[in-house]
Amino acid sequence: MDQPYYRRVLLKLSGEALSGKGSFGIDPEIVDAVAAEIRDVAVMGVQLGVVIGGGNIFRGVDAGGRGMGRTTADYMGMLATVINGLALQSALEHLNVTTRLQTAIEMKAIAEPFIQRRAIRHLEKGRVVIFAAGTGNPYFTTDTAATLRAVEIRAEILLKATKVDGVYDSDPVKNANAIKYEKISYTEVLTKNLKVMDATAISLCRDNGLPLKVFNLQKSGNIKRVICGEAVGTIIGG
């Protein structure tokens, strides 16, 4: 039987990953597949927090660039992450996985407010905790929110699930000769301006000694492989 290498992790999912082949909205089959992978990890006794972006519904940065007030646009993006969080929670509970949805913006009818001690207690009881609404503040991405929550729950590692299988020196879609890194330091990511996470998130990882693993979500079973310590994706640290 596979044994987890990590006991408490924070999984960052992009909102776009939930839209499947479409460019907008939520694909129920994709959400169910992601939920099944999370279930497979949860039953191993891994304490799992999840942060989901909202780009499949609304991207605050894009709207801000088109003339909408950045603060308003960012709050709309935060609400999009709550919608995604509710969808994932529903899929997980359909698989009999106990979950809690916590939001940085208070909305008592559908979620708990984020409280660090309560979140950690949920994790200790084996519940999957979904963190939504970013940091609750405009001008911060969900990458930064994921890093912040990972530090706050004292996660051993931050896992960023993407559509590529790691970090490259250039865009592998545009450059067939792009070189993949197996391991790279925080400082190299920043100095080479690699588009892994925004600079605030990477700096926060570095300042708190939080390792970051970037891997491909679209390959079935990868979440479990990463948590079991297999050499999947790219590790960022040191």
The CATH architecture term is 3-Layer(aba) Sandwich
Strand percent estimate: 15-25%
Describe the biggest sheet?
9 strands, mixed
Low-confidence stretches: none
Query: What would you call the structural class?
Result: alpha/beta
CATH superfamily: Acetylglutamate kinase-like
- Extended strand count: 11
Radius of gyration, whole Å: 17 Å
Instruction: Please bin the fraction of helical residues.
Output: 25-40%
The coarse silhouette is: globular
Task: Report the order of strands and helices.
Answer: EHEHHEEHEHEEEEHHEHE
Protein described:
The chain is an alpha/beta fold. It has a single domain (8-163, 209-232), classed as Acetylglutamate kinase-like (Carbamate kinase). The chain is built from 8 helices and 11 strands. The chain has helices at 28-42, 60-65, 70-94, 116-124, 142-152, 186-191, 199-207, 222-227, and strands spanning 8-13, 47-52, 99-103, 112-113, 128-132, 157-162, 167-168, 180-181, 183-184, 212-216, 234-236. A 9-stranded mixed sheet has the order 4-3-5-2-1-6-10-11-9, with helices on both faces. The protein has a two-stranded antiparallel sheet with strand order 7-8. Helix 1 crosses helix 3 (70-94) and helix 5 (142-152) packs parallel to helix 7. The model has no long low-confidence stretch (mean pLDDT 93).
